[in-house]
């Protein structure tokens, strides 16, 4: 799974924010550093080298969002240049102090921004290498400043402050970057899961609507070829049933497509328990001898009612497709101790393929979505589907 370079997730420093951050840091940190180098009493070559290193550090902050790894490497080299430079004079326009290493110049704080970017926008192991390099740089910095005595506080307090700032800032910048990366990864995975769930939902609805209606139409069309020859008066009945099944499929598909388009127009309500008798009548007309029983006092949520309807619809559709000639079935919807119990059993040809088909997978997903249980499998005389769903 890939995360786009500028993909989903929190954008603490976005496309405009990163250059803005670099500009703010440059305005406040760069002038004092350049001034200190200019009057630091070092050779011209070192003045030019240290000035370039300071400017490069701030440029790297501006490019760290787009090229995090390259900016981090170049920025680290700039920090190494500051650490390697000679001590500069503590005399400035404002204060006179002892000489100090250029690594103490305020622009060095840009390293934390670079470490954050490489940790937030690159994949392992690069962030781990960056952390290791940053901690090694902390050790080099402490070694470089070992003899520095130009502070008005106690020596132990100075080293505690410096060590806490160096190591604590490095670890904090790395940890914040990894947190941002993890959140972005989580957001991407969540979006992909939601998209996959929606695709499965659409596939279930399309399968149930199309498979059921087409099975009814095919059954009546095949029967019509035989019946109409001997009983022409039944032709209108057969064609009416085929047309009704087609219209029902079109209505449900329009409703589904309206949802996909986020159409503001009202759609037909989803079928539920009240529509079960009509479903049974259609399947009986398709040639399935069905014994149906239902508790008229059952009441449940629309989602559970739709699940029950689709389960029975799919089970009866499978009977017309797999149970051979003159199949019979029994459908029972009753109240049980654990919720609403649905039983669909049939006699006919026993399906021997152990692999679950798309319809059975769809039934399992529907039942799981409402927190129910499903058992389906062959019996000695046919097939059975048992479902328990909460009220």
TrEMBL record:
<protein>
    <recommendedName>
        <fullName>histidine kinase</fullName>
        <ecNumber>2.7.13.3</ecNumber>
    </recommendedName>
</protein>
<feature type="transmembrane region" description="Helical">
    <location>
        <begin position="12"/>
        <end position="30"/>
    </location>
</feature>
<dbReference type="InterPro" id="IPR011712">
    <property type="entry name" value="Sig_transdc_His_kin_sub3_dim/P"/>
</dbReference>
<keyword id="KW-0472">Membrane</keyword>
<keyword id="KW-0902">Two-component regulatory system</keyword>
<keyword id="KW-0418">Kinase</keyword>
<dbReference type="InterPro" id="IPR036890">
    <property type="entry name" value="HATPase_C_sf"/>
</dbReference>
<feature type="domain" description="Signal transduction histidine kinase subgroup 3 dimerisation and phosphoacceptor">
    <location>
        <begin position="198"/>
        <end position="263"/>
    </location>
</feature>
<feature type="transmembrane region" description="Helical">
    <location>
        <begin position="130"/>
        <end position="150"/>
    </location>
</feature>
<feature type="transmembrane region" description="Helical">
    <location>
        <begin position="42"/>
        <end position="64"/>
    </location>
</feature>
<feature type="transmembrane region" description="Helical">
    <location>
        <begin position="100"/>
        <end position="118"/>
    </location>
</feature>
<dbReference type="Pfam" id="PF07730">
    <property type="entry name" value="HisKA_3"/>
</dbReference>
<keyword id="KW-0812">Transmembrane</keyword>
<keyword id="KW-0547">Nucleotide-binding</keyword>
<keyword id="KW-0597">Phosphoprotein</keyword>
<feature type="transmembrane region" description="Helical">
    <location>
        <begin position="156"/>
        <end position="176"/>
    </location>
</feature>
<dbReference type="GO" id="GO:0016301">
    <property type="term" value="F:kinase activity"/>
</dbReference>
<feature type="transmembrane region" description="Helical">
    <location>
        <begin position="71"/>
        <end position="88"/>
    </location>
</feature>
<keyword id="KW-0067">ATP-binding</keyword>
<keyword id="KW-0808">Transferase</keyword>
<dbReference type="InterPro" id="IPR050482">
    <property type="entry name" value="Sensor_HK_TwoCompSys"/>
</dbReference>
<keyword id="KW-1133">Transmembrane helix</keyword>
């Amino acid at each position: 799974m890939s995360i786009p370079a500028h993909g989903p997730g929190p954008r603490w420093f976005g496309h405009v924010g990163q250059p803005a951050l670099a500009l703010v840091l440059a305005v406040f940190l760069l002038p004092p550093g350049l001034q200190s180098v200019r009057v630091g009493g070092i050779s011209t070559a070192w003045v030019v080298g240290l000035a370039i290193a300071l400017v490069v550090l701030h440029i790297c902050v501006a490019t760290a969002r787009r090229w995090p790894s390259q900016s981090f490497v170049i920025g680290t080299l700039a920090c190494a240049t500051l650490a390697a430079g000679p001590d500069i004079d503590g005399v400035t326009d404002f204060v006179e102090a002892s000489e100090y290493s250029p690594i103490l110049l305020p622009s060095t704080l840009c390293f934390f921004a670079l470490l954050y970017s490489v940790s937030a926008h690159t994949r392992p192991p690069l962030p781990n290498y960056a952390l290791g390099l940053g901690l090694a740089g902390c050790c080099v910095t402490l070694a470089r400043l070992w003899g520095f005595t130009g502070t008005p506080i106690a020596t132990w307090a100075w080293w505690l402050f410096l060590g806490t700032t160096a190591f604590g800032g490095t670890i904090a910048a790395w940890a914040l970057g990894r947190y941002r990366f993890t959140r972005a990864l989580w957001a991407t995975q969540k979006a992909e899961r939601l998209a996959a769930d929606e695709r499965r939902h659409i596939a279930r609805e399309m399968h149930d609507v199309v498979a059921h209606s087409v099975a009814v139409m095919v059954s009546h069309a095949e029967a019509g070829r035989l019946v109409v020859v001997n009983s022409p008066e039944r032709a209108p009945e057969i064609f009416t049933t085929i047309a009704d099944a087609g219209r029902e499929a079109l209505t449900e598909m329009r409703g589904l497509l309206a949802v996909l388009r986020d159409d503001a127009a009202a759609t037909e309500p989803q079928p539920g328990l009240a529509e079960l008798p009509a479903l049974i009548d259609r399947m009986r007309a398709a040639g399935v001898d069905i014994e149906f029983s239902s508790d008229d006092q059952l009441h449940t949520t629309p989602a559970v009612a739709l699940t029950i309807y689709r389960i029975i619809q799919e089970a009866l559709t499978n009977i017309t497709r797999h149970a051979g000639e003159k199949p019979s079935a029994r459908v029972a919807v009753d109240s049980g101790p654990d919720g609403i119990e649905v039983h669909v059993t049939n006699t006919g040809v026993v399906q021997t393929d152990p692999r679950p088909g798309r319809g059975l997978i769809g039934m399992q997903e529907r039942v799981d979505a409402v927190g129910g249980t499903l058992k389906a499998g062959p019996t000695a005389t046919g097939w059975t589907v048992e479902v328990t769903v909460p009220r």
